Amino acid sequence: MRVVPSVLESVTVHAEGALCTRAFVLSPENGHLPAQVRVDGLPLALRTGSLRARVVEGPSDLLVRDLKPTFDVRMPSESELPAEQHALEAAEATLAAVHGRLERVRAEIAALRGLTPTWPAARKGQPPREAPLASMLSLTGFVEAELAELQAQELDLARQHRDATNELELRRRRVQELSSARSVDRTRLFRAALLTLSGPIAANADARLVLEYAVAGARWVPTYDLRLPRTLEEGTLRMRAAVVQRTGEDWTGVRLAVSTASLERRAEVPELKSLRIGRSQPAPARSGWREPAPGLEELFAGYDALHVARPEPVLPKPQPPPMPVMQEGAYEQEKAYKESASFGGAPGAPPSVSAPPPPAPMAAAPKSSGAFLGAARPSRNVTGGVQAQSMPSARGGGGMDRLRSKKRAVVEEDLDDAPMADEAMDEEEGGAGDELRSAAGLEPADRLFDYDSLTLAPAASQAQRGRLRPRSALVSQAMLSITSVNVQVEVVRLEAQAFVIAESVNSVAPPTWAVPPHDSARHFDARFDAEAVADVPSDGAWHTVPMLTVPLVLKAEYVCVPSVEPRVFRTVRLDNASPHPLLAGPVDVTLGDEFLMTSPMPTLGPGETQRLGLGVEEALQVARNTRFDEASGGMFGNSTVLTHHVSVEVANHLSRAANIAISERISAVPDSQKDIKVEEAEVAPPWQKPTPLPGEAAVEGERVWRVSVPAGEKRSMKATWVVKLPASKMLNGGNRRT
């Protein structure tokens, strides 16, 4: 088996997760390609069920016959470790050396401080001895001199210890800032893939293969960059993708693409069944299913001859227990005890009743193809002295017993026997075995067609050997691949930790005004390819990648509603002329050479038009004046005439002409009020009813002036409308309007 290096070529980031593509080249040796190859260095957060491999270039009949996931343990050399790791180890060694010297100096100081003269005990009847003053002075001088030198060393070592601690903390922070793909561990666990090739292995040319796999821990949100000139007449819109990933491998120099589709959604071609008119015909058998071959047991005759099963010991037949002597008034207590202890109640017998001795264990039941294997072992006793086999189960409690038996089968047996126990439990619960399916003529279950999850029963299982059956759900794919790892590594813990780290990207706060793609994609899915290769490190931070330049038709327009706000706002109408949808997200607007603002942009489908606000234009000034007249009308003065006069003046202080849309609103009459009329008397220049853009709400009674004001000039607009209503009525909020 040859281990081949691979290169990560392309990555497609979906709404959650990513699809990676690696490529590698096989060169023939002695005129033959290897029949088995191994690709190492795959991320630990890889989803094993997503592995796919195919031949891109090479012999026409060369195929990938088998693909299995496994693990790869790497012990990097000193040269492969990053420089920050070496600096960290050097800082740790320096701190350890300084700490050891400082502790020795402090121990010597403590020992010197303990050097004090001792006085012998006075003896009774003898005069006290003369004190050795010379020796005491010599000892005191020696202690002072040594303490002065050691204390100077302690001060210097304490300073070195403080500096070494700060240096170690600095190195640790720099190591933590490294990408998660550049781990500094001495031993690392990776995923690997084993490929088995079939076809014309004898070849003289190279073969190029690609390996695809899905990983968790990647997200993206769309962002945009809009560059406009000062005149707002033309501009360019560039789409960018903010990508965050913690998959465990850095994406360096890859062809990046982003998609709004869900990576977990199954996209399978439906199987259409034909409908025939006429006589009833049996449904055709599903392809891919075969009954067990006849004479299957004869294939294992040699195995049975070498592995003769030991006869199970025959246990004595249980004898009925002697009837206990019931005391007076104990019948009701005994009945309550049986209902509580035997039928799932609280264990424990009443103190006045003597519990019967437990019966002898029952003989083990013979194994059969339709029986649960866990029933062949003696059951454990439960509280209350009642055996599990003789204890009647509570209503609805059979599933828990089977679950406990299934758990014991996985814990007590090895990995080869655990799937068989699971299959036997499934048959006991109602899933018929091979013999029952063929006898009853039932259609096989769907999971029997999932060949990737099927496993062959061991030869030791006489009931299931030679047959494929679904793998137990309790035995994970990580446990099945541990056999290829020769180093003691906590595979399950490290794999679970890798998935937890990968899923942590879902809690990373997105940029301001960013919208997830699955929330803004409406009812379509789209894919965007980057124009150049990109680098996205696996550090859990957002990285902006330029994707493509979107062709747009831009039309600048100034908008003003003087009755609400006497200021003019810059807007740009965006017409999406590209075949790509523009998802909702933040857009950075650059006006000329200066950054203007960041604004939210709604979803813009192909051919749609939206308005993007760009803030206030201070060089345009608007003044609005109103006048209101109220009079009586009609032949007998039984109506009220309300006349509204509005005049608007716009001054343009820009160096160019400006197209301004000025909105005004006249009174709106409900359809139920037939006796109220609104008439437009005089409007100069003429105005019109606006047509709202997609996503904008229509305003009842709105009128718009669209005028072009030359540079340095002013324009005036006037409008008069009359509201006629009965004298007994008045406008909502009062007749007087401004």
UniProtKB/TrEMBL annotation:
InterPro entries: CHP02231, DUF4139, DUF4140. This is Aspartate ammonia-lyase. It comes from the Bacteria. Residues 336-434 are annotated as: Disordered. It comes from Corallococcus coralloides (strain ATCC 25202 / DSM 2259 / NBRC 100086 / M2). Residues 211-726 form the DUF4139 domain. Residues 362-371 have a biased composition (Low complexity). The lineage of its organism: Bacteria, Pseudomonadati, Myxococcota, Myxococcia, Myxococcales. Residues 412-432 have a biased composition (Acidic residues). Residues 348-361 have a biased composition (Pro residues). Residues 380-392 have a biased composition (Polar residues). Pfam families: DUF4139, DUF4140. Residues 11-112 form the DUF4140 domain.
